[in-house]
Structures
1.
Amino acid sequence: MTAFTPLSATIGGVLIGLSAGLLWLLNGRTAGISGIFGGLLPHRSRDAVWRLVFLAALPVGAIVGTWLGPKIFSEIAGGTPALGLAPIVAVGAGLLVGVGTRLGGGCTSGHGICGLARFSARSLVAVVTFMLVAMATVFVVRHVL
Amino acid sequence: MTNRSILPIAAAAGCGLLFGIGLAIAQMTDPEKVKAFLDVAAIFDGTWDASLAFVMGAGLLVMVAFYRLGGRRDAPVLASAFVWPKRGDVDRQLVLGSTLFGVGWGLSGLCPGPAIAVLGLAPGEFALFVVAMLAGSWATGIALAARDGRFAGGNLPAT
């Protein structure tokens, strides 16, 4: 159980939208994270550098945001995130996310923000599918098993 | 390196940084917070955390504004052309992939962006998940390329 934090969630969402919007406006690229690392293999073009630079900047941004967030928003509790899964489950879940986003051609950012924003039917189907399946999965794990 | 090649790289660095800051301020780097949103049973006892919907909604609205703002441009500011996804159709592979992703997301509370970003906060805790995620994506990409290469020009359907 975590607290509802609408203000920091909205501001965080605006920053994510700005990032995705600027990457598109400046570089003409879609800020779908699974697509950005997925495009590294199989290697098709000479565009690995911007992908690696973007991906390397993500954790740096997370450090900055984690430090900055609680200074601006009192609603942020803070603390270090934990996965809390047995190693075999962590590997299984990681594989499912990697394989699934590759087959489905996108994740929460690529389909959920960039695709939905241009009213792509493909992205709408993807988002509705992974949202409902993820909700069902959490329901089964928390309330059935 | 000329400005032509270094500016897009600098833009990618800035966008990655901004994306990570946004994820962390929205606390999407905390799998517990994501799972608290996905746990819709909590709606009925009043403990549901709807924050993720605000993150996606805000990001989506800003992105819509960007598409409107830049929609009249022939090319992006720092590159020769916009790169659009090749596929526009809905097929079984899209639904299958999104289903598998949904199971993995629900189990872990991690989608690709937060999974990479959280490496800056607790690398040891999340490294195994990220290695599996990257391996799954790359292995699938190589398998898809092999399939499409083998069947290219054949009479089998593309999917």
Note: Chain A has a mean pLDDT of 96.
2.
Amino acid sequence: MEYFLELLLGGLTRGSIYALIALGYTMVYGIIELINFAHGEIYMIGAFTGLIVAGLLTMLGFPGASILAIALVCAIVWAAAYGYTIEKIAYKPLRGAPRLSPLISAIGMSIFLQNYVMLSQTSDFLPFPELIPEFEFLKANNSIMSSSELVIVIVTILSCVGLSLFIKFTKLGKAMRATAQNRTMAMLVGINVDMVISATFIIGSSLAAVGGVLIASHVGQINYYIGFIAGIKAFTAAVLGGIGSIPGAMLGALVLGLTEAFATGYVSSDYEDVFAFCLLVLILIFRPAGIMGKEKTQKV
Amino acid sequence: MPRIMELKSVNSFYGNIQALYDVNLYIDQGEIITLIGANGAGKSTTLMTVCGVVQARDGDVLYRDEPITRMSPNKIVAQGICQVPEGRLIFPELTVQENLDMGAFLRKDKDGIKRDMEYCYDLFPILAQRRTQQGGTLSGGEQQMLAIGRALMSRPKLLLLDEPSMGLAPLVVKQIFEIIKKVNAENNTTIFLVEQNANLALKIGDRGYVMENGRIVLTGTCDKLLADEQVKKAYLGL
């Protein structure tokens, strides 16, 4: 039973990170119908920013918790700036082009950013400091959950709830939904569509950066390639849940994380990806639009 | 009457395909202007050019004598120009209420918005009943009403209507045209109406333009156009 719980919590943590990244994929897809393959690299850049800032602050002798907070904020700002710039450079000029063109541009951006980080930083694994302090109450109860896992799950839940409320109730959130449903009409009611698209990239990148810093601190090492693998998994989660749907991305990430954790725990870690992708295939056979995806039924 | 809108030798393109050739037309404050023509004549493109969704490659679009040719669509809406596009383009997953809210996107006067919302529900009582329903679940006629209501929520000075009669039952069409006349009379909203249903459009309009292959080929008062032999044959089926 304890083993089961351990796997469950491990899966929850995994799912949380996937969710933070998958939200960026699904939001961008919802608005401009583009798979932003450079999104995984944003996550990686978030982690690197966290590492650099944390290293700097540790040398300057800042206390533990403040390092985490400042590193997170810096990673968010820096990654958001990257997300914003990528959209302006690589996608906006191609907005009227056939759908394949921005997709290729996205893959190019992804390769460019990986190599840029590899050259400017290093191709080796770098140790990442443990930014999340050990909580006494977890240690005292001999808990099976580590404090970083707890923080990851809580931060993810807060982010998801916050994002949902934002999308539902704020003016920008409504503008995002309207733009996703019909871009021409959004223009015709006076929405600045360029601004909405930029905001989508900024929000998605911020969430990915949070995921990047937290998981790096949990795992303890990073390199320039982490964004690729995490990105593919998060993309899978987004498709699983129904690409374009925000609750779908959260659910898809959770399902994927748990599947991987249980497959690893009960079968073998060699089969982790096999189970993950079998699940994807199975779900897409029975629900081609994903778990929460809607098949388009619109009256004309 | 002051001039509210004028197009001066406007040429518009979709990619490399030219859709409008030297289009000249003007609209005075308070008028109902109709633009008729066959499928693909360039009627919708004319409206999209006014709204800035399609930008004129050359020529001028003037609003109250100021050029808006290079303005972005959201700035043009802020000037008081609003379009009910062809096919209504309701936000399918927003409720009726939210769709109307989106119409008032650029407005900040909460009380005014509330009053206009009530006005819309008075004009279209069926929408009040459907308030919490998703836009995509409404019938065609209800969607058209919602689209007009949404446009009115921006308190337009100039309302552009693209084929409001398309695909609707004759009774519903009659109802919608009565509302258009009412909005024009009560709020002094200038109306630019694009229609394939020439008979109907020419009956409520003050002046009309006839478009063929991207060019304006005929203009005059609606009475004159209704009596015109060429119009009769080509558009009225007489």
Note: The mean pLDDT of chain A is 92.
3.
Amino acid sequence: MTTVESPPDSAPSESAQRSTPTEAELAAARKRARRRASSKNWALFLLFAGPNILLILAFIYYPLISNMYYSTLDWRLGSPTADPVGMSNYIRFFTSPSGLEVWRVTAIFTAGAVIGSMVLGLLIALVLNKKIPGRTAARTAVFSPYVLSGVGVALVWMFIFDPQRGALAHILAAFGIDSPAWFLDGDWNLVMVIIVYVWKNLGYCAVVFLAGLQSIPKDLLEAATIDRAGAVRRFFSIVLPLLTPTVFFLLVTNIIFSMTNAFDILRVMTPSGNGTNTIIFEIYLQAFGQYNRAGYSAAIAVVLFFTLFIITAVQLRFVERKVHYQ
Amino acid sequence: MRNSTLSATWKGTAVFGMAALVLTACGPDTSGESAEDQVADTDWSDVEPADEITFATNHPGGSEDQENELIEQFTEETGIEVNVITSGADYEETNRWFQTGGGDNADVIVLSDATWFPNYLNGALAPVDDLLEAADVDSSGYVEALYEDYLYEDHHYGVPYARSTPLFYYNVDHFEEAGLDGAPETWEEVAEYAQTIVDEDIASYGYSFPPSNEYPAWGLANLVWGYGGGWSDEWDLSMVSSDATAEAIEFAQSGVQDGWAHVSASSQTDDFSSGVSSMTIQSTGSLGGILEAADFEVGTAFLPDGPAAEGETPTGGAGLMIASASDPEEQLAAAMFVGHMTSAESQAYFSEATGYVPSHQDADMSSVYEEQPQFETAVEQLDRARVQDHARVFLPGADLELAETLQDVLSADADVREELERVQAEFEELYETELADELE
């Protein structure tokens, strides 16, 4: 195949000028093509993602931003009028004795619930990781409280804790111990709901820990055994370091869950929140309890949102770097 | 680069600005204007009742069938259709439903003695005096103390419907075993009888006080009034820390310390019904449940007298309110409906099925007395009914403060006078922050 090339110094003919696009025209055409492709991509994106984005905007971001706006109002629930008060609701929550009490209760409940669930969950996972008869049934039994209704769990435990007729009172009486005033004393109230929350959630921790334990290479443990490392040494030198991703995952999720998912148990077992008003329960009590403080409640909700936001950010940015991965 | 950053900033500002505008439009009015009172300006002689109204109810005392029966009667008599909305399982849920938007849908709503006042402050309730008159409902037939519960600033904002009072319950079998003759008439006798029962080892406790979730400020109002005290004297909040109030609470605290009384863990009804204790005070509405659960003979009596006053009985339960958001036509139909539901015949029927006391003086309860003679005590006791103290029913959060304080004081060795002074300070702060601007 031969091609005839024009001399480089010869001027192009008129027809050649019309048929050969200039660089500017080519660039414009490329731009138009890119725009068409981009428009097409955007159309496809909006077609598939648009409905979801609209739903997320309507049901997550709109309420979230609305709540932030309400948190700047002195507003009684149901009132058609409200007074703008700026940051007063936030200042009140961070400085009033009742607000500080909420932080104290939340800290104790979270620490008790997270440590209790994780320590007991790990111990149970270690047992369930052994080849013992009825292991599958035991795993099911341990996990089942996690999927039970919190309301049902709370009602059953109320019968157990009843100091007059409860099973626990009878067991304690057999040892000559009087039942504590579980429902009447604020401190015992808090201990009671922590016990119930841990009982309900340790199955989740046990199952996650079990998955972590089963991913530990057996050759490492066998090598350690050959090197005469005892069970305790193997646990602290091999098992626990290799479980750190699981530990930190559970730590973060348990902190978040204990701050947000305990409402059903708290509401049923201690309806007025005597000593158990954690931050999530306080949001409810302030708005829908006797006070009807919708604006103040909204401010507490915003504080909870940012608290969880920070915990999650710390987990993503800091904790993961410090965790040992295989 | 700088331009694009600026552009993003401006876009962000614009989005937030738009969001603020939208939120301001959708949220509460921050201009400070209150809702208009339609009722006062309406010439009711020109208004025709609506053909259809909506009734929001939690079916107090499991009364769904009875309410439907009464509604059918009403529709037959007037031709007005009534749409029923089950607005919650209890008074608190119904109140929440109404406060969070239900007011736009309901014409008549069931609200309790402790929840109607915030709705009044929200401007959500219509005064019923003129409405009842326009609907030819004679309000003079209601039990006065029950109707006066809804009186504020010269207007009534509800009509007594599913009403109750506390009643004194005692275990007749325990009393016979202890050689006690009849119910105690004074609080001193309550202490004496309870001590005898404990000394004779007949029951663990002679008397059960209510825990914080069983409205102890309601159950103990009779004791406090009996000593000449109270939770407040209208808006004089110093009454709660007066010597008389403190003496009454000290008497109750000494009962727990001496062992003749205790504070129930979850419900005084359960402790009494199961024989853990021999006496308690609980709502008349609990009579049916107690008779069903108890395997002993249950006695009922008037609330005990105190050293300073005869056994006064606090009122309780719920009333029927008319929504201010409804049109005048709907409000007039609603008033006719309210009149029907609270007539002497309707109240006798409703009371017989639920255990609530009839709110109409002319309700014929003779057939109920034959089956449940204990109920007669509850109805006769209405002569001693007294409207509740402002602090408990009107001051947001005060009942909760009282409930937690009473539970703490009775179940521990806390200094009563110090605690009541703290409660008074708390009441004053609540009044200043929650009510003062609107009431003054």
Note: Chain A touches chain B at residues 65-66, 69-70, 73, 75-84, 158, 161-165, 181-186, 271-272, 274, 288-292 (CB under 8 Å).
4.
Amino acid sequence: MLKQIEGSRAVAEAVALCRPDVICAYPISPQTHIVEGLGEMVKAGAIAPCEFINVESEFAAMSVAIGASAAGARSYTATASQGLLFMVEAVYNASGLGLPIVMTVANRAIGAPINIWNDHSDAVSQRDSGWLQLFAETNQEAADLHIQAFRIAEELSLPVMVCMDGFILTHAYERVDLPTQEMVDAFLPPYAPRQVLDPGEPVTIGTMVGPEAFTEVRYLAHEKQRQALELMPAVAAEFRAAFGRDSGGLVRGYRLDDAETVVIAMGSVLGTLKDTVDELRDAGVNIGVLGVVSFRPFPSAAVRAALQSVRRLVVLEKYFALGSGGVLAADVQMALGKNGGEIYSVIAGLGGRPITKKSLRGLLEMAVRDELVQLTFLDLDRTLVAKQLARERQTRRSGPAAESILRDVHGTMARNEGKKS
Amino acid sequence: MFEVRIHGRGGQGVVTAAEMLSIAAFEDGFYAQAFPSFGSERTGAPVVAFCRLAEREIRSREPIMAPDALIIQDPTLLHQVDVFAGLKKGGFVLINTRNTFAELGLGDALRDWPAGRLCTLAATDLGLKHVGRPLPNVPLLGGFAALSGVIRLESVCKAINDKFSGKVAQGNVAAATAAYALVRAAIETERQEVAHA
């Protein structure tokens, strides 16, 4: 049914349609509306049988999900930012134990400095955790990915993280087509665990493995990720046949035909990028967009196939590895090897900085003229940075950088206000 | 694409107004996208929310920087925030106040605006009268339907019933309907004045 609905509500309703047995979560912005919605539905008996377990922390949320999943329950949780970091040890355990938990991450920056706004620091920090990580472009896709995620997770016995941009998607009202219970039931069969704690047939989940087999167990986990690369497009195709729309899969191209320049990105910024690319196409620039849906496993072959004969790539991401550079850019570079053409890495939208069409257009026009440096920070205020660096050179006890920069920013704003009045 | 920016203060239902505007637009067959400016909202602090309407899928996620219309829920913001930033020339402006544009000191700035684009509405009074709370957001939506003609009053009422129920919904429908009539009358008066001038 087509509804004008908040992204968080759409995800809550999609998760409810998946008939979870156990939901355990600890609220944190911008994930809160999702679990509040699910809590209300469980309380009202709209999801039954289902137990909503209130926990005292994110670490407990993931631990409860692990226990519930091992006992054969379809388990769901959601978090963001510091909440994800707080549960990290259990996050690695969930995948290491092969438990098909589905978790929404409402993407938000990581502190310090504390920041509640959107970027991809939280999810990307868990890129090596062994979870599958899918990024939604719209709220429709966020809802659809959850339905696919339970299918994929339970088929492979691996946990899946569905990542959606905090606030930009979670708090946006837009139209979402939510399927009927019958449609979801036909697509997602009841959970049939590949391993389960059963007193009748005792097993040990989480046994200690020494040097004699640890490499092999790890290699098997990697092999599972490779299997996911085959399964995900098949599930997306089946989803399209059943629900009549494209959601999920590995990568999705836009105006790639004869494109000499391609922008690669993940999540909701793809929409703004497509609008920008349309403008540039109208101006005669051969440019396209490649959206990465599956960040983990990284679909190297699909990326290679989509980018044949492309002259230059702009990899735009809402995260970077401090002291190194773009993470998605590095993955793309690795996938393409020597034949990849020029790759420009762009960091944008950190801590909720809006990514505007105007800035994107300027950036891409520079890229097309090969005027970009290898690592660009979109809309970086170099004056502010230079000021702070100068302070630090001048005074040993120059104080906390975040506070000093804020004072500079607000001082400038106050002066501008003064000019206006 | 028709873009609306709503300014108000925390507690005045700014975000809810943008959401309801998107629901009303959806009811009228538009694609619509509403989103807040994602601050750490506090009661009384300036808040901004956005709503886009279009005939086709809305893909852009950037904040609205050149709005076609402004709804200003609190006139004290005029002295604090550059609410008119980026407003398209001739765009719609609806302000919650008992005063006129001239009395607000805006006569000069908006002198070249075409008729039927600017309106003030005592929306807080309407909220108090019909809902019993000084909330201007819903009456302003009723007024905005009349001023812009982009969405129908019936759709605003549907959005109200989507968000609220019982007495609160009834009161808000009454407030929006009264606001619609007031703005219609104000525009008609202005039109006649222009015709006679």
Note: Chain A has a mean pLDDT of 96.
